[in-house]
Amino acid sequence: MSENCGTLMGCGVEDERSFSMDDYSGPLARWCPGCGDHAVLAGVQRLLAKEQLKPERTVFVSGIGCSSRFPHYVDTYGFHGIHGRALPIATGIKLARPDLDVFAVMGDGDCCSIGAGHWIHAIRYNINMTVLLLDNNIYGLTKKQTSPTTPQGFASNTQPRGSFLPALDPIQTTLGVTNASFVAQTADWVPSHLAQTLEAAHAHPGFAFVRILQRCPVFTPTIFEEAAMNTDLTELLEHENGVTDEALKGVYPHTLYHDPTDIQEARRLAESSSKVRLGVFYADPGHARYEELRAVPKRTAEEKIALLNAEIDRYAV
Length: 317
Ligand code: SF4
Ligand code: MG
Known about the structure:
This protein is of the alpha/beta class.
């Protein structure tokens, strides 16, 4: 199939298929009742249907954790990887097949702990993909261990007297990495904001990082409870190049007009606040993208084998 092919199998026959949300639904998700992952899955399926992404040209990649079951539940291609390694796998896929739509889905333990090295470098490489961090502030799959984003003082099975250290803030971290190009935050309990944020991230040409505050009613039921129940505790970042939603403004009394091209202001806003800030902190499509700088030439299988053999022959003794 040719790159950006609008036809089926590159044969010249127009692709007249249209896809509903159901067309992207895999088997029944096995997350706990009330888990925020269900809402994120629905939001992602809504995006896929809205953008009419072809299932055979869309890939979901994950690491390990509750949220990393994501690829099983989306009826596209998928790769359920190993712990902390969603981003290198997604990078490899995107470099080999730049025509594919690539999504990486990670949890907070997965991305911010064992996968942190990959996370930092993937931000800098700025390869065009949509990256979702489903952050429930805990290791859920392995039953309540402290993760890097667990709030200080929150008791877990590994730190029963409460987490010793202040939590890592994934938005601040991402904004601090050279060449960061898109950084947003949304929440599983605000579906229209989630949907618009996913749309903005998907439309962004580069590494679009979205932290999704995700409720885990089993292990961290209290952490997001107040923010989810009391709209007074949230501040929406609004901009025509980010997320704007008139209907939401009727529900959330605090809105801040923020130009997402202003990285200094984005960093300031990402610092601790008494309110939970939702919206696009930073978006600039002008950043260098690794896949454009290091485009891999197209080669036939025979050419690849010949090159490989030539390389091996260099070391013959
Ligand atoms: Fe969701 Fe928590 Fe259950 Fe995991 S343990 S599926 S994060 S509610
Ligand atoms: Mg987690």
